[in-house]
Amino acid sequence: MTSYKLVDFKTLGDDRGSLIAIEEGYNTPFAIKRVYYIFDTKKGVERGFHAHINLKQMCIAVKGSCTFILDNSKKKEEITLDNPNQGLFIEGLIWREMKKFSPDCVLVVLASEHYDESDYIRDYQKFKKEVENGKK
User: Fold this and answer.
1) Which of 20, 35, 44, 128 minimizes the number of CB atoms within 10 Å of its CB?
2) Domain segments of the chain as ranges
3) With contact defined as beta carbons under 8 Å apart, do 88 and 9 qualify?
4) C-alpha angle with apex 105: 69 to 26, nearest 5 degrees?
5) How many angstroms separate the CA atoms of 106 and 66, rounded?
6) Active-site residue, 114 included
7) How far apart are CA 126 and CA 110, in angstroms?
8) Which has the higher per-residue pLDDT, 19 or 26?
9) Threshold 0.85, pTM exceeds
10) What is the CATH number that goes with domain 3-14+26-132?
């Protein structure tokens, strides 16, 4: 299946502050095998420029903001992450680009698999061909 959607996380807290729990199978619809975060992105730098064959991801801007360009080869959509109460769930063949990182952006990514270079498609034309061939 190929899809992406914004997921709202329930915020807990009291007069001391706020807390969000990320729980496998509850608000993250996959087993979490890897967590990484992107920070200190220099002004004007764009990242991503790839798709995944099998990987599922939940992306959360826990601080600051960044913009995702999501492309299923038929339409492109721009989504800005700027709220730690919300995550972007991505699965299947979706080309992703990330840009407009605020200076304080910390983007946390939860992944369904360990790093595997063979799961990446880094050439846009190959990506389009994969989608046309009906893979995933």
Assistant:
1) 44
2) 3-14+26-132
3) no
4) 75
5) 9
6) no
7) 25
8) 19
9) yes
10) 2.60.120.10
pLDDT per position as a tens digit, 41-98: 999 999 999 999 999 999 999 999 999 999 999 999 999 999 999 999 999 899 999 9
Q: Where are the beta strands (DSSP E) in the chain?
A: 3-8, 12-14, 17-19, 34-39, 47-52, 56-63, 66-71, 76-81, 86-91, 95-99, 106-111, 120-121
Q: Map tokens 């890897």 to a residue.
A: 34
Coil, helix or strand at residue 132:
helix
C-alpha distances in Å from residue 69, one per residue of 25, 63, 85, 96: 26, 19, 20, 6
Strands 17-19 and 106-111: unpaired
The residue whose two tokens read 């990514």 is: 109
